[in-house]
Design a protein that fits this description.
35% helix, disordered N terminus, Rossmann fold, alpha/beta
Length: 348
């Protein structure tokens, strides 16, 4: 559609610069698509891990240091693109989550992400800081080594760009409240302890009990029910990743549910629903991916409405809480399930 601004890429818009010499960041390409005919491409000599734009990728003058404002044929499509560098001595997941949660509050500003994970030596840090100098922007970091922290702060001060130690306020508050010093251990939250292995076991359980499979419903902490295309599987896997043993069972017209489902007391049983329009849309897309375009009851809106009514009546009959996932992300649905699980545990 003319005037639409989008980024077309062959990998997620995350630049993971190799931390060790000789490592490959993989081939990545990026385009700025302004309309169906006009495509601006990065210069051919762009470093592979420096995916995207702006700055020094041939889309704007090479001496640009600040954010880039791009306006399409519609003024409402104006976007500001800016570099964000995340440097971590661990996996970088904390940084990524904080950055994305913060950036999401700015509607027309798009961060170009550069992630440097497992940076634990001066040489690795120097390579990351060289990349920051090449593509100036905000630097966010989690680093326990005081010398490496100081190197980041000093280099950013020289470059006149902000550097944010995202965990410092939290850790300082906790240290003062507990009256205890920090351990100064990188990746301390990722110890291979009993909790870690319990989470792995929960993920294995969730995968083994996907889509009505498995024979140990009594061992589940959560059981999800719903008609086809209500996000049962991804929600189950996400909950498993959070350490919650989850099973999911599809509600199929004419199929019977396991008898034990109606006698279980320990697991929380939650129904998932969505609007008929949303279900039909997702099912049609699925059939298109399977190259199946015939009209069937599976995508008939009236039939889908009947399925949803049946599901809601079933949930109400047995007193099972339900969640409408129409406008919820997987994370939001899972958060609601976790809240329900906390309440459920207090009643058994």
């Amino acid at each position: 559609m003319p005037g639409r601004l989008s980024i077309v890429h062959s990998a997620p818009v995350v630049n993971t610069a190799p931390a060790v010499p000789g490592e490959s960041a993989g081939e990545r390409t990026a385009e700025l698509l302004l309309d169906r005919k006009t495509v601006l491409r990065p210069r051919e000599n762009t470093p592979a891990y420096s995916q995207n734009f702006p700055g020094k990728l041939g889309l704007v003058p090479s001496d640009l240091d600040g954010p880039l404002t791009l306006m399409t044929t519609r003024s409402s499509d104006m976007r500001v693109f800016y570099h964000v560098h995340m440097i971590s001595d661990s996996t970088g997941e904390t940084l990524m989550g904080v950055m994305r949660a913060s950036a999401a509050q700015f509607e027309r500003a798009e961060p170009i992400e550069h992630l440097f994970a497992l940076v634990r030596s001066p040489r690795q840090l120097e390579r990351a800081l060289e990349h920051v100098a090449d593509y100036p922007g905000i630097v966010m970091f989690t680093m326990v080594n005081s010398d490496m922290r100081r190197a980041i702060e000093d280099r950013c001060a020289d470059l006149r760009i902000p550097a944010i130690a995202v965990l410092d306020p939290i850790q300082a508050t906790l240290s003062g409240y507990l009256g205890a010093p920090l351990m100064g251990k990188a990746g301390a939250q990722r110890a291979l302890d009993a909790e870690y292995y319990a989470r792995i076991e929960a993920m294995n359980f969730s995968m083994a009990h996907d889509d009505g499979q498995g024979d140990n419903l009594a061992g589940a902490e959560v059981i999800l029910l719903g008609i086809s295309r209500t996000s049962k599987t991804p929600t189950s896997i996400y909950l498993g990743h959070r350490g919650i043993r989850t099973a999911n069972i599809p509600l199929v017209p004419g199929a019977t549910l396991p008898e034990e489902l109606f006698t279980l007391k320990k697991p929380l049983i939650v129904g998932l629903t969505a609007s008929p329009e949303r279900i039909v849309q997702i099912r049609r897309n699925r059939l298109l991916n399977l190259r199946e375009d015939r009209s069937t009851d599976y995508v008939d809106e009236e039939n889908v409405r009947d399925e949803i009514v049946y599901a809601k009546r079933l949930f109400a009959k047995h007193g099972w809480p339900s969640i409408d996932v129409t406008r919820r992300s997987i994370e939001e649905t899972a958060a609601k399930v976790i809240n329900l699980l906390t309440e459920h545990r207090n009643t058994i």
